[in-house]
Design brief:
Length: 171
């Protein structure tokens, strides 16, 4: 069996995000083809491409993608098919990177990244998927202080001959 996994990651709104699809050690398994379907929240993320700029897919791998928008739901899916007749996948590697843009959402949110379909070769070896997620974190905000003005004061106790400094809020 081969573990195929997506990470848990964080991002902020309007960020370009590359999510790696990783495989465990594939040495000697002669993997020359893969199909991957990754589902995600289309209200939070927009998939736009896959990245093949790693050693695995240099040159002799063909990659095709198809992005399917949810029908009556916010769950979209990017379908990826890849194959080669030259060199097989070797070792634990990043198989491919899925490129997303985080939509302009300014509230905390999270999207599961779900491997809804994983097929290596024609089913041999068996793939064991592990899902991931993207958690949206903010990078802007406003801090307000109420009341608007804080003043320093001094109170005295004549009978005890003491004075105390205090801070008071006005507003």
């Amino acid at each position: 069996t081969v573990a195929v996994s997506l990470p848990d990651t964080t991002a902020t709104y309007q960020e370009a995000l590359e999510v790696p699809v990783r495989v465990s050690d594939t040495s000697g398994l002669n993997i020359v083809a893969a199909e991957l379907f990754v589902s995600y929240d289309g209200d939070l993320l927009t998939a736009w491409s896959v990245g093949t700029s790693n050693m695995l897919l240099s040159g002799d791998w063909s990659v095709e993608t198809n992005i399917i928008e949810g029908n009556g739901t916010n769950i979209d899916t990017i379908k990826i098919a890849m194959a080669t007749d030259q060199s097989s996948v070797t070792g634990p590697v990043t198989l491919i990177n899925v490129k997303f843009t985080v939509n302009d959402v300014r509230t905390p949110a999270s999207s599961p990244l779900t491997l809804t379909h994983v097929l290596l070769n024609d089913g041999s070896p068996t793939a064991v998927p592990t899902d991931g997620s993207v958690t949206l974190v903010g990078n802007d905000g406003t801090i307000t202080s109420l009341p608007a003005q804080i003043v320093k004061g001094i109170a005295s106790n004549r009978s005890m001959r003491e004075s105390v400094t205090y801070w008071a809020a006005l507003g």
